[in-house]
Fold this sequence. Notes:
- The chain has 1 helix and 11 strands; from the N terminus they run βαββββββββββ.
- It is mostly beta strands.
- Strand 2 (27-34) and strand 3 form a beta hairpin.
- It is globular.
Amino acid sequence: MSFSNTYETNVLTWAFTSGSVTRPTAWYLGLFTAAPGEAGGGTEVSGGAYAREAVTFSVSGDAATNTAAIEFAVATADWGTITHVAVFDASTGGDQIAYAALTTSKTIATGDVLRVPAGDLDITLD
């Protein structure tokens, strides 16, 4: 995953200045049918019972990994082909923290459930 511009600035401010940054206290995974970028954007899924789902992380070395499975609600309408994900600091609105393309896109039709098993969402720094 890549950090958004906002969070790149926050990390650099924290690491290299005496300035303070407000860190998130909750994290949410969003699904996209068109790529977000460092400044946000993209096309987040909407409608059909879609909502961002809460995610918790553990950190080991240079990686943060989801500690529990993430399960989205049953789609009550087609969500389209999910190509990207992003982590946000709010369940709606808020700031995008990081984003990435999926290794394999996934089409979500009415009645489908998208699940991310524990340990399958990794954010790394190298």
